[in-house]
Amino acid sequence: MKHKKTGRMPGKVAGKVPKWLKRNWPLKLLSLGIAFLIWLVVVNVDNPTKSKLFRDIKIEIINEDSVTEIDKTFDIVSNDTVVIKVTEKRRVLESLSASDFTVIADMENLTEMNTVPLTVTCSNSAVTLDEITVVPSSLKVELEQIVESEFVVTVETTGTPQSGYEVGTTEVVEGKTVIIAGLESLIERIGQVTASVSVNGISTDQRLTSTLAISDKNGDALSETQMSRLQVKDSSGVLLSDNEVTVDVELWAVLYEVPIEIETSGSPASGYEVTGVSTVPTTVNLAGTEEALAAITKIVVNEPVSVAGAVETFTQEINLSDTLSDMEDVRLASGVDSSVTVTIQIEKNGDQTVQLALSELTVLNRPENMTLTFSPADMISVTVHADDEESTISAEDITATIDLSVCAQKGDYEIPVEIELPDGFTLVSEVTLMVNAVATEQIEAATEE
User: Fold this and answer.
1) CA-wise closest residue to 351 among 419, 263, 262, 274
2) What's the CA gap between 170 and 154, in Å, rounded?
3) CA of 133: how far to CAs of 85, 117, 121, in Å?
4) Are 287 and 164 in contact (CB under 8 A)?
5) Using an 8 Å Cβ cutoff, are 424 and 388 in contact?
6) 151 phi and psi, to 5 degrees?
7) Which residues contact 95 (CB under 8 A, 6 or more apart)?
8) What's phi and psi for 103, nearest 5 deg?
């Protein structure tokens, strides 16, 4: 038998799919699909899609001049920050920060509803606009009239000058007041304008720079956005660069322990006399210019204390403010209370009051293992009457004895002091001493705790 020549090699079939590919092809397709799904799962588990919030993103306002007139401007009614939500792969979210976003309100796009659509851009090219949600999506504004008003500048100092000095006077070089122009509603809310300067460690007069701080009537500082919408000028109408003023600070010296002197007016009742005048405190610290302090050796209260008709010792509160107000360039030093307690000692003619130290007392029956606290803690007053008004008595002439046997138990006791006097003198009033008694072991236990 003869074979017909075909021009092809025996055993080779051109253009045919290999048999191994044709076998079980549904299973091969299924395997390919499963492999793809596994890859997809692995990718999403390792780098899943999530959402992340970026808060307090500041809104940038552009083209303000397009909606303002010479006597009008706009106020932001809604918040001046937004929250941005980004839905992206985890790895992309981890690389983002608030600084990657820019939110712009173009005032040229102001609508009839007084809202401005917000445009958001992200510096990271992996984030597209469809993956960003901004809340709120627009800025609410309101057109208002521009007004201006004048405000007093309050100077505040922080810190402490070197020892021996205090802040004497402060003065704003540009003037005591500033003129502030802005939204009528905002101007009406202003409560205080403050220039704060630090005087910490200074020992000479200084000229310091301060940025004005403006707060509302509740004491809350205006926001950066509100401040940016104000024009602050000096009292002459000149715009202040960066809202800055200069403050002259004059230092005063401190004069320590200046005695207080009290004068009396009138006369006690017949048969009585003023035997002593004392004050608490006995001295005060003053601050002032060196010239003013050089002339001061004491403070004489300008209003005498009346003793007219007095028949017994009395106390009276006085205030040094009135006296110091009559003195130029002088005041009480910082932390010094202007209130002074004056004690006027009134005694019958022939009466004398002697101060006796507690250490001079003869103590009987002091209990062991008890801690005693005495009041007064230093001296007791013994008032005596002399048969001869010319006779005098001293502490050395008095014998005082106290019996502490009742203090063996815990408690508070008022214990009489037995007084022995020389001939010719009699005790005017009983002398007592307050004593608090506590077991020593209780005090030690409390200390250990």
Assistant:
1) 274
2) 10
3) 5, 13, 11
4) no
5) yes
6) -130, 145
7) 124
8) -115, 120
pTM score above 0.70: no
The yes-or-no verdict on residue 106 having pLDDT over 50 is: yes
Secondary structure string (H, E, C) spanning the chain = CCCCCCCCCCCCCCCCCCHHHHCCHHHHHHHHHHHHHHHHHHHHHHCCEEEEEEEEEEEEEECHHHCCECCEEEEECCCCEEEEEEEEEHHHHHCCCHHHEEEEEEHHHCCCCCEEEEEEEECCCCCCHHHEEEECCEEEEEEEEEEEEEEEEEEEEECCCCCCEEEEEEEECCCCEEEEEEEHHHHHHEEEEEEEEECCCCCCCEEEEEECEEEECCCCECCHHHHHCCEEEECCCCECHHHEEEEEEEEEEEEEEEEEECCEECCCCCCEEEEEEEEECCEEEEEECHHHHHCCCCEECCCCEECCCCCCCEEEEEECHHHHHCCCCEEECCCCCCEEEEEEEEEECCEEEEEEEHHHCEEECCCCCEEEEEECCCEEEEEEEECCCCCCCCHHHCEEEEECHHHHCCEEEEEEEEEECCCCEEECCCEEEEEEEEEHHHHHHHHHC
Whether 214 contacts 275, CB under 8 Å? no
Residue showing tokens 């504004």: 141
* Separation CA 449–CA 407 (nearest Å): 26
119-171 tens-digit pLDDT: 999 999 888 888 999 999 999 988 888 899 999 999 999 999 999 999 999 99
Q: Across residues 22-32, what is the average pLDDT?
A: 66
Task: Say how far apart CA 82 and CA 285 lie, in whole Å.
Answer: 56
- Contacts (Cβ under 8 Å, ≥6 apart) of 52: 85, 86, 88, 93, 96
pLDDT digits 0-9 by tens, 289-335 = 999 999 999 999 989 999 999 999 999 999 999 899 989 999 999 98
* Residue 288 backbone phi and psi in degrees, to 5: -175, 180
Of the candidates 166, 161, 194, the one whose C-alpha atom is nearest the C-alpha of residue 180 is 194
* Residue at 134: amino acid letter: V
pLDDT above 70 for 15? no
- Check pLDDT > 90 for residue 75: no
**Distance between CA 91 and CA 144 in Å, rounded?**
46
Q: Is 80 exceeded by the pLDDT of residue 33?
A: no
219-236: burial string, b at 16+ Cβ within 10 Å, e else:
eeebeeebbebbebbbee
d(CA 96, CA 37): 29
